[in-house]
Design brief:
Chain lengths: ~450, ~525
């Protein structure tokens, strides 16, 4: 029986294992040095905040793996012997594979700051990070202040976590406004405001210079590069992005760049070895996508794709239209298609922006300024229907069409107030048009008819 | 703000101590006049019983209601034993010993509580209400801006099966045991709501009036908590208002007012088979003897169960009842809300649930079948089984123990919908319709799920919502009561409760998982 080894029990590796099992009776071994069972790392924050226990982050009950004949192995793969098709573990153990899937995910970035390896310098990625945060910041008497470096999605999650235990948080963000390399300025300002409203000491335009140490090797303080200001703290969160976790491949024959290089079939340069998820790097980036995407659902799609290929149904990785979501304190964010920040805006890209006066809800629509084709939407504080936007992007609908039909894309819970008349009114004023909102129709919503 | 909260908690604890103290207060004396009247009114012919009580109890002073109640109940039992041995069937007292004891104790109370009912009501209920509000209202400021604030639920002793939870568990179970089986032990609690009962129905309060009143007060207070917690969520606000309205108006006020006009006590929203004694002989007789109005209730009760319930479930799912109308659901969604995360999500629990809840439904239907057969054939025994015995078993096991003692008592340990999930025959009936013939579903928003598990954790019915959401499948489950909390706690906007065409209600949408590969092949595969 063919033996499929999978290194990494995150969403990519586990999805691959599940789908291979669905399609075949091959022997499957999933290897992890992090945890015994698959868990959702996006939920680690909720464990610290007391919304959930760690076991709730595990999507499958523990009997699931045995029942589905998926062997779970705890161990750290130190090296891959591609010629012998052997995995070599840190304890010297070897494991033969017929096919190998590398799904080792990411590791948090560190940029060589003095003091970056002190006790109390943490990130938020692995289960071990959660344990460290719990140890160094259990409450606000042990941890008098926390400093977070890096203004992305993980940084704001970490801020919310620490804030939930009433630990004062200083948040160093390199940009002049939160996440403004990704978000258009109106939205970036709104989220900046939301962070400050929640009592976070947000320092914009600030970089870390160094982390100072106490005598026992714990964190004492940090220094801001721009001002030289020293801030005393007990924990430092480094959330300056992630990069592929592929250090163990350094001396192998598997070709790597920043990540493991793969083709559209997710195959590496070595036959029978595949790479998926955060650690995979497309040799040629797909249209409108980066060669490495550390996103939950792309990992899942790669897992499904590679499972088909391995089960003799060669399949190309085709992630479809970009979408994503996040939450900034109390403001939910969903995006479908592409809406670029001023920094990366395309020459043909134009925006229509609506914001609710209370600054907790806003919509930004991107469209082609010549053809008026709808390109994407950023929705804050309002939930939108993935299926509908996917269809509209497929069908190259115009911005006018999209705005007129927003009711059917609405996904907020029942009885929520909708704002689409106001949105359309603003658009009509700006463009001198007289568009009218179409009422919601179930047939449009649940069939693929336009 | 924190000070106000602490003050509120202090007040609540003080009132709790007072409530417990009340149980032991007052003195009790069964006067011979009262006793003789009771004997005559209730046609008690057991000389053994009368003599026994006259010797040991009548005109004696008791310092707690417990001894008086016990001595009466013991007298009933020993008299009955004597009469049974001597086959003196006409002298046996058929009333349940502690029901009889309750009636006598109720008219034997003297002293501070009986003389100051209203004052003590103010000190107990009144201060409890103020204390609860002081404790809860500061959350508006303390818990930060509107939004999902489930912080520290799993760090708290009260909501994570810690000692507070076990204490509440034990207290609730004791409370229900006393309420159902030893009501005279809480006679002082009943005295203090006498004035309210007399105002509404003209009669002094019974233990059921106390329970109804307490139910309304607790639901109202905990609804305030819901309004604060979900002030950003209109679905939750409307739903909470609805259950509160139906509890106070339909389950509490209207039935009491009906009694004032000498009509049968009836809760117009309580549908069979949850209302399991609707077709019992005594109820049918009472309704038929109450003229046109009784007949109206009879017809409404049947139409409610056979027409209104299924039609509404078809259009809106069983949520229209379970989390918008039902009294049990109402308590679960208010008092029980802090415990919703404790329901088990395991596959094993789901198996137990399906056997148990449908088992109770079958039991209820069989019992009703026997009852009606007995009613129309005018027999007290059907197939050699006493109808009364079956009814007593159901009433004890399901009506009292499951729905009450377990149903609410288990909140702090096993979650707030134990009865609704494992025991309610009406929920089982509606569940079957919801599963196979309804427009209701929880839609999963394409590929947005990140498997975080908030939805599953906070599902009070123990549904593993995430298992569906992460596959991009809609959630169609018989047990879903449509509380909407999964949708509320989802950090990524993945879930939406909605009613829509049956077509395409169940199927998942593989394309939307962001996975457009070989679309036609995938369709072909299915």
């Amino acid at each position: 029986m063919e033996h499929i080894a999978i290194i990494g029990n995150g969403i990519s590796g586990i999805t691959a294992a599940r789908h291979i099992r669905k399609r075949s009776n091959k022997k499957i071994t999933v290897i992890s040095s992090e945890t015994d069972y698959f868990f959702s790392r996006t939920a680690l924050m909720y464990v610290y905040m007391g919304h959930m226990k760690f076991k709730h982050t595990q999507p499958y009950e523990n009997w699931f793996w045995k029942k589905n004949d998926i062997t779970l192995k705890k161990g750290y793969v130190k090296q891959i012997d591609t010629a012998q098709k052997n995995l070599i573990f840190s304890n010297g153990e070897r494991l033969y594979f017929d096919k190998l899937i590398i799904a080792t995910g990411s590791k948090p970035n560190k940029f060589g700051w003095p003091g970056q390896d002190l006790k109390g310098v943490v990130s938020l990625y692995h289960k071990q990070d959660l344990d460290a945060i719990e140890a160094y910041a259990p409450n606000n008497s042990v941890c008098k202040r926390a400093v977070i470096v890096g203004g992305g999605l993980i940084g704001v999650e970490l801020a919310e976590m620490l804030h939930s235990r009433h630990i004062p948080v200083t948040f160093l963000v390199r940009e002049e406004s939160y996440w403004n390399s990704i978000l258009p300025s109106g939205e970036s300002k709104m989220i900046t405001h939301e962070i400050i409203k929640n009592g976070i000491d947000l320092r914009l335009g600030s970089n870390l210079k160094q982390i100072n140490s106490n005598e026992d090797g714990t964190v004492k303080s940090i220094v801001i590069a721009e001002t030289g200001e020293e801030i005393e703290c007990n924990i430092v969160g480094l959330t300056v992005g992630v990069s592929p976790n592929i250090g163990f491949l350094k001396h192998s024959t598997i070709e790597t760049n920043r990540g493991v290089l793969v083709n559209r079939n997710l195959e590496t340069n070595i036959k029978d070895i595949y790479a998926i998820g955060d650690c995979a790097e497309q040799r040629i980036a797909l249209e409108d996508r980066k060669p490495i995407e550390a996103v939950w659902y792309t990992g899942r799609i790669m897992g499904e794709t590679v499972a088909q290929t391995i089960c003799n149904k060669e399949t190309l990785y085709t992630p479809g239209h970009w979408f994503n979501s996040a939450k900034f304190f109390d403001i939910e964010y969903q995006t479908y298609g592409r809406v670029n920040s001023e920094k990366y805006v395309k020459p043909n890209e134009s925006h229509f922006h609506w914001m609710h006066p209370d600054q907790t809800k806003c919509l930004t629509f991107a469209f082609d300024k010549h053809t008026h084709t709808f390109l994407g939407i950023n929705a804050f504080g309002i939930r939108m229907r993935h299926e509908i936007f996917n269809r509209w992007l497929d069908q190259n609908k115009t911005i006018d069409y999209v705005l007129e039909h927003l009711e059917i894309a609405h996904f907020d819970p029942e009885f929520y107030k909708t704002y689409y008349p106001e949105v359309l009114k603003k658009y009509n004023v700006e463009t001198n048009k007289t568009l009218k909102l179409k009422s919601k129709s179930w047939s449009q919503l649940f069939t693929l008819k336009s | 703000m924190k000070t106000i909260r602490t003050l509120g908690l202090g007040l609540l604890l003080a009132v709790f101590a007072l409530f417990i103290n009340l149980l032991f207060m007052g003195n009790y004396k069964l006067s011979s006049a009262t006793f003789d009247l009771y004997i005559i009114q209730n046609n008690i012919s057991s000389e053994v019983f009368i003599k026994d009580l006259k010797n040991t109890t009548v005109d004696n002073d008791f310092s707690t209601p417990f001894y008086l109640a016990n001595s009466i109940a013991e007298a009933v039992e020993s008299a009955n034993t004597y009469h049974r041995e001597n086959k003196e069937w006409n002298q046996v007292i058929w009333a349940k010993p502690h029901s009889l004891a309750y009636k006598i104790v109720k008219s034997s109370g003297q002293g501070i509580v009986v003389q100051n009912k209203f004052l003590i009501w103010l000190l107990s209920f009144g201060l409890a209400i103020i204390g609860a509000l002081l404790f809860m209202l500061p959350a508006i400021r303390l818990k930060g801006p509107a939004g999902i604030k489930n912080n520290h639920i799993y760090h708290s002793n009260a909501t994570n099966r810690g000692w507070i939870a076990w204490f509440v568990f034990a207290f609730l179970i004791l409370f229900y045991l006393v309420l159902y089986f030893r009501p005279s032990y809480m006679i002082n609690w009943i005295y203090i709501v006498d004035p309210i009962s007399e105002f509404l129905s003209g009669n002094p309060a019974s233990q059921w009036f106390l329970y109804g009143f307490l139910y309304c007060v607790i639901m109202t207070l905990m609804a305030v908590r819901m309004y604060i917690k979900y002030r950003h969520n209109n679905y939750q606000i409307l739903r909470t208002t609805s259950v509160l309205f139906f509890q106070i108006v339909f389950a509490f006020l209207i039935p009491e007012i009906l009694v004032r006009f000498e009509k049968p006590w009836y809760d117009f929203k309580n549908a069979f088979p949850l209302d399991y004694d609707f077709f019992f002989r005594w109820n049918l007789n009472e309704l038929l003897e109450s003229g046109g109005f009784g007949l109206f209730i009879l017809v409404w009760g049947i139409v409610l169960s056979l027409v209104v319930v299924p039609v509404m479930v078809y259009f809106f799912g069983k949520r229209w009842y379970c989390s918008w109308v039902c009294g049990c659901g109402g308590l679960a969604e208010t008092l029980g809300d802090p415990y919703r995360q404790l329901s088990s999500k395991s596959l094993f629990s789901w198996k137990v649930e399906r056997w148990l809840v449908h088992g109770v439904l079958v039991f209820a239907l069989l019992m009703t079948g026997l009852t009606l057969y007995g009613y129309f054939s005018e027999a007290y025994e059907v197939f050699g089984i006493k109808v009364q015995t079956i009814q007593d078993i159901y009433g004890f096991l399901i009506g009292s123990i499951f729905a009450g003692v377990i149903g609410t008592g288990f909140y702090p340990i096993f979650g707030n919908r134990v009865w609704c999930r494992f025991g309610c025959p009406l929920a089982a009936y509606m569940g079957v319709i919801q599963r196979f013939k309804s427009r209701f579903r929880i839609t999963t928003n394409g590929g947005q799920c990140i498997s975080c598990g908030n939805c599953s954790t906070y599902c009070e019915q123990g549904i593993d919502v995430r298992a569906y959401a992460q596959k991009g499948e809609n959630i169609i489950r018989a047990s879903c009561v449509g509380c909407g909390i999964c949708s509320a706690v989802c950090p990524r906007g993945v879930l939406k409760l909605e009613n829509g065409p049956e077509q395409g209600r169940i199927g998942s949408n593989a394309v939307l998982l962001g996975n457009e590969m070989n679309l036609l092949d995938q369709l072909h595969d299915k």
